[in-house]
Design brief:
The protein is α/β, with parallel strands linked by helices. The protein is built from 15 helices and twelve strands. Helix 6 crosses helix 7 and helix 7 runs parallel beside helix 15. The chain is globular, with a radius of gyration of 20 Å.
Length: 362
């Protein structure tokens, strides 16, 4: 899922978060881009994270070194991967979700590979069942989060639905991400389209704009700079108590706090959630295709799946993978999230984003 990790805290907990400069998890003897069969390169958005011991075990067992290239928010990363598909930066791409999947598939970003253990993935999360071009890795819900202290101090009830967000009581309180560059921003747009229909979502966004919604380019800017409820936002002086993020964001504020609070300082507006599923795939023209296949097998293995919740703050997709209690307690999945048929997303996404851009960023 998109960028949900607080990097400084993650480093303190011994997570491996690797940057676009080309760092690798061990001493590098090459890269997937130059055909080195001992190095497999994963291209990802900015929230890739894995426990050091989990990755080390995979490298030891496979004989591979994993190199990670992070390429910004998911929307930007997918766009760049499509543009470089003939000469890809790596072997596997992780982080394309159901809102952008058709763009990746239609542009031939991936080559077929059915990962070992694919039959353990819950049926609801599978896609491209006959082509096997992508492997489901994680799931989560894009939702508005709120700063509990802000609303408590003002004796103001937090919003509960999309409709509430356009009420005068919440004027100038919401920050969201650019739907053309950010996966959560796009997911929020699709959530409004699912709620109000093809003919109603634009009118809703006119009202949301009139009510002072602020739009920034990325999740990092929205959550860690503008949002008053996050640890990063507090340090940055953020003054927006409502932000488009994830149902699994509140556990971040618990796990990384010292001391840990009994309850999360942020909450979720359940009536604004949109279900997101993230996939990985073997890039067309990958230099180390065999290494890429091994990495895909690893991503849906039980060890990695159970490692994800407290690293990337997402839910596993395979049957039988356990979720840590602290994660489930503070970040339960949305009970009734909005969804949309991938075919409808494919048919309307680009037109909706173009219309949204003209309407909101005018």
């Amino acid at each position: 899922m998109n960028t949900k990790t607080l990097v400084a805290a993650a480093v303190g907990l011994g997570l491996v978060t690797l940057s676009a400069c080309g760092s690798s998890s061990g001493s590098s003897s090459g890269s997937g881009g130059d055909g080195d069969s001992k190095t497999v390169t994963l291209v990802s958005h900015n929230s890739w994270a894995v426990s050091k011991d989990v990755l080390a075990d995979f490298e030891k067992q496979s004989g591979l070194q994993v190199k990670v290239l992070e390429d910004g928010d998911a929307g930007a990363a997918v766009n760049k991967a499509v543009l470089t598909k003939d000469n890809p930066q790596g072997d596997v791409f992780f982080g394309v979700d159901n809102t952008l999947l058709s763009r990746a598939l239609d542009n031939g970003l991936f080559q077929p590979y059915e990962a070992k253990g694919a039959d353990t993935v819950r049926a609801a999360y599978r896609a491209d069942a006959t082509g096997h071009r992508v492997t489901p890795v994680d799931t989560g819900d894009i939702c508005v989060n709120y700063d509990k202290a802000y609303f408590s101090e003002r004796d103001l009830a937090p919003p509960r639905t999309f409709d509430d967000l356009i009420e005068p009581a919440y004027k100038d309180l919401l920050v969201t991400e650019n739907a053309s560059t950010s996966s959560p921003g796009l997911g929020f747009l699709l959530g409004t389209a699912a709620q109000y229909g093809d003919d109603g979502w634009q009118d809703y966004w006119k009202k949301l704009t009139d009510n002072g919604v602020k739009v920034v380019d990325s999740w990092e800017s929205a959550y860690n700079e503008e949002f008053s409820g996050s640890a990063g936002g507090k340090k940055a002086g953020g003054d927006r108590p409502l932000v488009v993020s994830y149902a699994s964001s509140p556990p971040v504020e618990v796990v990384y706090a010292d001391p840990q609070p009994k309850t999360a300082p942020t909450g979720v507006v359940d009536g604004t959630c949109f279900r997101q599923i993230e996939y990985a795939g073997l890039l067309s023209n990958a230099e180390n295709a065999e290494g890429g296949k091994a990495l895909l097998d690893f991503l849906i293995g039980k060890r990695f799946q159970e490692d994800m919740p407290l690293n990337m703050f997402v839910y596993p997709v395979v049957e039988g993978a356990r979720v840590p209690e602290v994660f489930a307690q503070h970040g339960p999945q949305a009970k009734d999230p909005a969804t949309m048929d991938p075919a409808k997303i494919a048919d309307h996404r680009d037109d909706w984003v173009k219309a949204w851009t003209s309407l909101v960023l005018r």
